[in-house]
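Re: the 247-residue chain
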Amino acid sequence: MRFVTDTADISFNDYEILFNTTNYEALPTKRVTRESVIGRNGQLTFDDGYSNKLIQAELSQPYQTRTGRKMTMREVMPELAKLGKLFLAYEDDIYWYGRVIDSANTSIEFAINRTTVIFEVNPLAYSALEEDLTWGEADVSWGAADFDWGGSSLTETFGAGTHTVVNRGNHISQPSYIINGAGSVTINGETFTVTEACIVDVENKIVYNSGANKMSAFTGDFEVLAVGDNTLVTDVQVKIVNKDRWL
C-alpha cells in the first residue's frame, strides 16, 4: 500500500501502519440529469460521465507507543491531504488519483490506534506502468499548460499506413496525438486533420505546440480509443500517448 505525492512516497508498511480497505465503490456514481416532459410518463435521463469515487480505509498502528503513533500520523496525514497516487495491494497494476477530503477520525486505545480515512479519487484508475512520455522530446512548454497530467503512459509511434492501437483498460482512453506535420488521422473510421505539426490532447480538448494555441490548425473531433483493438489510418507520422483507464 502506497500513497505518492509530489513531495513524499508514503509506504504504509515502512511507517508500521496496517492499511485495510473497509469500503470500496465497485462502480462510481454516474452524473445524471432527469427531465420531465408534459404529457409523457416517466422521465428522460441524460448521463454525463462519473462522479468521484470514494475509497474508505482503516489505518491501524499496533506496533508503536502512544507518542510514537501520534508522531507518525503527524508526518503522514498532511501528505494524504495532498493530491497523489493511491496504490492498493490487491490491484497494484493500477492506481487511483485523489486525496483525503473529509476529516480523519482516530480511535485511541492502550495498545493500538485506528484512523478512518476516506479518499476521494478520480472515478477512473490509471495504469501503473512506468513508461512516461519525455515531454522535452515533444517540445511542449508546460508553463503554458495549466492542468495536471495524471497517469503513466504507453507511447507508440506510427508511420503512414494502417495500424492497430490497443487500449488495455476497460474504459475508453483519451490519448494525446503528437503529429509531426500536416496530415489526417483516422481512428475507427472517424477522421481529424491538422495543417501543421502539433499535439492534439483529447483529454483536455486542446491543440498546441511549443506552448502556442494551435486550435486553428485542427479540424474534426477529439477521437478517443475504444476498449481493445482500434484501427488507425494515417498519412503522417503520429506518436500516440495512451493512458489506459479502468473503472
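The helical segments are 66-80, 135-138.
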